[in-house]
Amino acid sequence: xxxxxxxxxxxxxxxxxxxxxxxxxxxxxxxxxxxxxxxxxxxxxxxxxxxxxxxxxxxxxxxxxxxxxxxxxxxxxxxxxxxxxxxxxxxxxxxxxxxxxxxxxxxxxxxxxxxxxxxxxxxxxxxxxxxxxxxxxxxxxxxxxxxxxxxxxxxxxxxxxxxxxxxxxxxxxxxxxxxxxxxxxxxxxxxxxxxxxxxxxxxxxxxxxxxxxxxxxxxxxxxxxxxxxxxxxxxxxxxxxxxxxxxxxxxxxxxxxxxxxxxxxxxxxxxxxxxxxxxxxxxxxxxxxxxxxxxxxxxxxxxxxxxxxxxxxxxxxxxxxxxxxxxxxxxxxxxxxxxxxxxxx
Length: 345
Ligand SMILES: [Zn+2]
Known about the structure:
The protein is α/β, with parallel strands linked by helices. The protein has helices spanning 7-22, 63-73, 93-103, 121-131, 153-156, 159-168, 185-197, 214-224, 240-249, 302-316, 321-344; strands at 29-36, 78-84, 109-111, 171-174, 202-205, 230-233, 255-256, 268-273, 276-281. It has one domain: Metal-dependent hydrolases (TIM Barrel, Alpha-Beta Barrel), CATH 3.20.20. Strands 4-5-6-7 form a 4-stranded parallel beta sheet, sandwiched between helices. The protein binds zinc ion.
């Protein structure tokens, strides 16, 4: 099985883009701080039955498929990564956590634990140690008693998680909720609370805080740039303007590359239009716009559109190889190494 399809199209369209645009610009060693893996048997229902909107169709990503995807996306590069399960109610959370724990090697691959909302400090520490995880990936899907739009960050990023992360300086991979994304006033209030009460927790705002438009991210950064424990991953961010804003206003050491596999393997392009997120894809999906006949649009991987945007922003800011290497490898590796040392000596 493969999560990358149309392999002839890959040879003729995607691979030449990689060779011409990225091969010599990207460092030889990369670190992907945001990737998912889960098996078909972990799915309790079809993934599409989840009420949270998703931009992929994969029903699973095994460890083997994950390495195959890296091989196709980044030929001749070494990719180390931080993986976690698929945090959805339609996936068996515990079985998925056990799978991640069974695959990580703590040398090139690391894992985050997907917590249950009611887990106490003691239980969370025990689960981390049992699985040799280095932090948490909480998610809003588990807040089933509220409409999606009313979910607050602290409904699913619990005080117990924050206390453990603060005590050991661990990362929490945070997908912010709500239509206004990172710029939402309640989200910003919650982040200020977290920054002042749990200053040692390393909060990674996934997908650039999902603020995929420059006006949203600038508004959000007016607050976030003053919170010293906030970090970003750039997974799914395909706007050079958004990436440039984050690069200009945040400390470089807090910014990291992420793929959000399986999303990076979807061929298409994602953008904001009048306040809504739009996905344009080569294949026809219920959640995207496409050509009337399938597979007509010459799209490449969303993962490549993201790196294009990153390169464009880095070029505008005259980033040298050292800065690019930090962005694509060292910043994430340093954060992960510090968490490993703190938890496991
Ligand atoms: Zn993700």
